[in-house]
Design a protein that fits this description.
The structure is a single chain. By secondary structure, this protein is mainly α. The chain contains 13 helices and no strands. The protein folds into two domains: 79 residues, Leucine-rich Repeat Variant (Alpha Horseshoe), CATH 1.25.10; 123 residues, Alpha Horseshoe (Serine Threonine Protein Phosphatase 5, Tetratricopeptide repeat), CATH 1.25.40.10. Helix 8 packs antiparallel against helix 9 and helix 12 packs antiparallel against helix 13. The two termini are 21 Å apart. About 8% of the residues have low confidence.
């Protein structure tokens, strides 16, 4: 079970790190001129490429109010739209929009990826003193605590992230893993189901949800 939880955390980190630029370099000049209003117009276009550009651009110029539109794109018929929309959601969530907090957050992420967990947590602590309403800071600090096998403490951080950002399917997934790890499989089922309602493309969650349901059923019998 521990191996599976660690595999989940590694998969989340890889997914977010991979969510970089989605536009070819040849589009760079035109891409940078697209503002939020134009991006929102593009996502309503009947043309696939226009929609791709609109959804992708929101990673840089979108705001939290745009997340519901991006979430609705996670059920789009086109794979590329679903992928770009998810990357843009993470792009919005990972921006503190603060000249001090953003580099601090990036440093904390870099330390996490280097497995310098104590230093990463200290940096996240510093960040959250500065910006206590930054949901992604709580979410990422929760991941650091999972890496240190501090599941109860991680659960509190994931819960705070979800309180600040009710759309945060990553925090819901984290809460599900924490619940399973601490023997509360019925709660885990609820968290995983809610995560999939928001983002049905969380492939790894389907298998862990199945295991949580099986474990919860055994607890009832």
């Amino acid at each position: 079970m521990e191996h599976r939880h660690r595999a989940w955390l590694a998969a989340v980190a890889f997914t977010v790190m991979a969510g970089a630029a989605v536009v070819p370099a040849t589009d760079a000049f035109a891409w940078g001129t697209v503002n939020r209003t134009e991006a929102l117009r593009k996502i309503a276009s009947p043309l696939l490429e226009e929609r791709r550009q609109g959804y992708g651009r929101l990673a840089d110029v979108g705001i939290m109010e745009d997340v519901p539109a991006l979430l609705s794109a996670l059920t789009d018929d086109e794979d590329i739209i679903r992928g770009v929309a998810e990357q843009s959601i993470w792009g919005i969530w990972m921006r503190a929009n603060n000249s001090t907090a953003d580099p601090m957050f990036q440093t904390a992420l870099d330390l996490t990826h280097q497995m310098k967990l104590d230093e990463a947590e200290d940096k996240f602590d510093e960040l959250l003193v500065l910006m206590p309403d930054f949901a992604e800071g709580w979410h990422r600090r929760g991941e650091v605590k999972v890496m240190g096998d501090r599941w109860r403490e991680a659960e509190r951080d994931f819960a705070k992230a979800l309180e600040l950002n009710p759309y945060h399917f990553g925090a819901l997934e984290g809460l599900g893993h924490c619940s399973m790890r601490t023997g509360r499989n019925s709660e885990a089922v609820q968290y995983f189901e809610r995560a999939l309602e928001l983002n049905p493309n969380l492939g790894g969650v389907f298998e862990v949800l199945k295991r949580a349901r099986e474990a919860a059923e055994k607890e009832r019998t």
